[in-house]
Write a structure and sequence with these properties.
The protein is an all-alpha fold and 61 residues long. The chain is built from four helices and no strands.
Length: 61
C-alpha cells in the first residue's frame, strides 16, 4: 500500500529549486534575442497561467 505524503512543500520563491524557462530555451533557440521574443510573443506569462489553470493544450496551441 502506498504511503500518503506527510508534507507538501511550496517553493514559490525559487529557494529550493532554481527554475527558469530560459534554461530550456537556451537549448532550443540560438540567441538570447530569440528566447526573449519567444517568451514575449508566444509563451507569455498569461498563456502559461491559463495552461496551468487547466486549459487544454489543444486550445492553447
Amino acid at each position: 500500500m502506498a504511503q500518503q505524503p506527510k508534507a507538501i512543500i511550496f517553493d514559490l520563491g525559487g529557494v529550493l529549486i532554481d527554475w527558469n524557462p530560459r534554461y530550456l530555451y537556451r537549448k532550443l533557440l540560438n540567441t538570447d534575442d530569440e528566447i526573449e521574443s519567444f517568451l514575449r510573443d508566444v509563451c507569455t506569462s498569461d498563456w502559461n497561467e491559463q495552461q496551468a489553470a487547466g486549459r487544454p493544450l489543444e486550445e492553447g496551441t
